[in-house]
């Protein structure tokens, strides 16, 4: 595992060096899932997002929820809560302002196999309380693909390609919020742990932003 983490870090170094003088940011992501029984699971997640390689905090996201499997883990309903602390740069300034958000969300995940390609659809509806503003509603649709490389399935010690696209839609005002497009390479160590390193571009209604994502997924 130590050799794998070192390898992923070496891969990310050229991107981190570029990030010092560009709009390229870095996201460190941990996603965990605890199986309670054959039907119920506990989801927990931490995301540490930086404007640059590391050390210039953009956002700290904490998310948790309880899920229920409708059928053998391929269809999951989940009710969750998220706390998001953001440090946003003021327009044309070096100063930041801190903004806290509380979020309730409901989601449905369904999975399927198309040959050796693993497909995941996620539908998420969010209710967002940002500072002193009124509640905001947002819908998100996520389509993800994983393709194993050195095995025909995502078994232990498998390298795989990972890609996803996620669109965000608001309930009023500017309907289009953002779109995230991601591509990367991952390694499934065993039935408990997976690691990914990838590049993501966010498209906003005005402009865009790039991120390098280092992801750890853990099930126990």
Give the structure's gist in a few sentences.
The protein is mainly β and 220 residues long. 8% of the residues lie in helices and 67% in strands.
Keywords:
about 220 residues; mainly beta; Lipocalin; eleven-stranded mixed barrel; 1 helix; 11 strands; about 10% helix; globular
CATH class: Mainly Beta
Tally of DSSP β-strands:
11
Largest sheet: 11 strands, mixed, barrel
Unreliable stretches covering 5 or more consecutive residues: 5-22
Gross geometry:
globular
Q: Structural class per helix/strand content? A: mainly beta
Q: How would you explain this protein's 3D organization?
A:
There is one protein chain. The chain has 220 residues and is mainly beta. The chain has a single domain, classed as Beta Barrel (Lipocalin). It has one helix at residues 2-19; strands spanning 24-35, 40-50, 57-69, 75-89, 96-114, 117-130, 136-148, 158-170, 176-188, 193-204, 208-219. A hairpin with a 5-residue loop joins strand 6 (117-130) and strand 7 (136-148). It is globular, with a radius of gyration of 18 Å. The model is unreliable at 5-22 (pLDDT under 50).
């Amino acid at each position: 595992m130590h050799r794998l983490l070192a390898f992923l870090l070496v891969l990310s170094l050229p991107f981190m060096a570029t990030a010092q003088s560009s709009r390229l940011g870095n996201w460190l992501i941990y996603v965990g899932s605890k199986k309670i029984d054959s039907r119920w699971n506990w989801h927990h997640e931490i995301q540490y997002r930086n404007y640059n390689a590391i050390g210039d905090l953009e956002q700290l996201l904490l998310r948790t929820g309880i899920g229920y499997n409708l059928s053998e883990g391929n269809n999951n309903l989940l009710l969750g809560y998220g706390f998001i602390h953001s440090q946003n740069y003021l327009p044309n300034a070096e100063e930041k302002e801190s903004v806290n958000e509380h979020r309730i969300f409901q989601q449905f995940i369904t999975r399927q196999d198309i040959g050796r390609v693993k497909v995941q659809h996620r539908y998420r509806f969010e209710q967002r309380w940002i500072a002193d503003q009124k509640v905001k509603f947002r819908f998100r649709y996520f389509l993800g693909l994983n393709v194993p490389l050195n095995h025909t399935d995502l078994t232990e010690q498998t390298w795989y390609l990972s890609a996803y696209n996620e669109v965000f839609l608001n309930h009023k005002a500017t309907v289009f919020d953002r779109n995230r497009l991601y591509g990367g390479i991952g390694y499934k160590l065993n039935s408990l742990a997976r690691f990914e390193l990838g590049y993501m571009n966010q498209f906003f209604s005005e402009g865009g932003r790039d991120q390098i994502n280092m992801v750890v997924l853990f099930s126990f």
